[in-house]
Amino acid sequence: xxxxxxxxxxxxxxxxxxxxxxxxxALAGPSRRTLEQDAAQRTRRRLTTVIGAFPVAGAEPxxxxxxTIGDAGHGEDLPGVKVRGEGDAPLADATVNxxxxxxxxxxxxxxxxxxRHSIDDAGLPLDATVHYGRDYxxxxxxxxxxxxxxxxxELFLDFTLPVDVIGHELTHGVTQYTANxxxxxxxxxxxxxxxxxxxxxxxxxxxxxxxDQADWLIGAGLLAPRVTGAALRSMKAPGTAYDDDxxxxxxxxxxxxxxxxxxxxNGGVHINSGIPNRAFYxxxxxxxxxxxxxxxxxxxxxxxxxxxxxxxxxxEFARATVAAAAARYGEAEEHAAVxxxxxxxxxxxxxxGRSELPRQAPAPEGAxxxxxx
Length: 373
Hints:
It is globular, with a radius of gyration of 19 Å. Helix 4 crosses helix 5 (185-207). It has a six-stranded mixed sheet with strand order 1-5-6-4-2-3, with helices on one face. It is of the alpha+beta class and 373 residues long. It is built from ten helices and ten strands. Residues 47-55 and 351-373 have low confidence and may be disordered.
């Protein structure tokens, strides 16, 4: 299967757009520059997709990651100057060390819980660049590596602070190498949601938390003290992560009744992802214990099983998770918990399980993903 890399950022464009219109230039300026830098990176990503990416040198699958951290020195050249490699001692720069540790935490969760060797399951080296841009208010996966800004200090802090941000962005790479979900509409919202799911699981695994102990927040610790909010997103209660005079109010719905139809943000990929996010939270907390075990395994099986079409909508993904639960655990509590979780967010699934993941033909070229309602 041909893998299509996409440019994915942790802070949604609709948030940066709002900040960029603020009358206070000290707040608006960094976000305007961030939007400009993101647009340039997105253009480079499209050009690379058209002309073909340079092959990335792989490594033999092993039980150890192969990490390299570069320092952009507040410039925009990637990958920057190499400052720490695999096995090197920590530096005085805490940002470098957090990036290094976050790459390691992501590698460890995927290896230990799912037997996956790096994001491509073939030992792909994990590269990251820190100190990108000046007051850059984002972090992103560009199809080949991670990049972190330092934040402006007014609204956003250092983007290496939350380990789930690192896990989220690297999981876009896992999706790239597996289901390859299109980054538009419902398939794009699933792409974002899968990254939130495994980003949260990486944090929970690193902290040794059970599902009931987890905060189910994405990006907790990223917002500066002046911001009225806890995080970028809440999987437990979409729409409640922040309510701030500068950032605005968290627009995520947690049920199909609130599905947002928009042409912005690639069809609302960062907004409507709240619906599948809450479905995972409901399944994980119903099953209890460590969420990366049963609930995470079911989502991982659905993502990597080969049965999802690149344009999968919420209903197709829901069926895939119900089928994955039945295939791995039979029609037991796991199967019931997953089906009930989707029902609670307004997405019906077949009552009976299946022994293998559903295989559906891709939608016609140019077709819009259907919206459940």
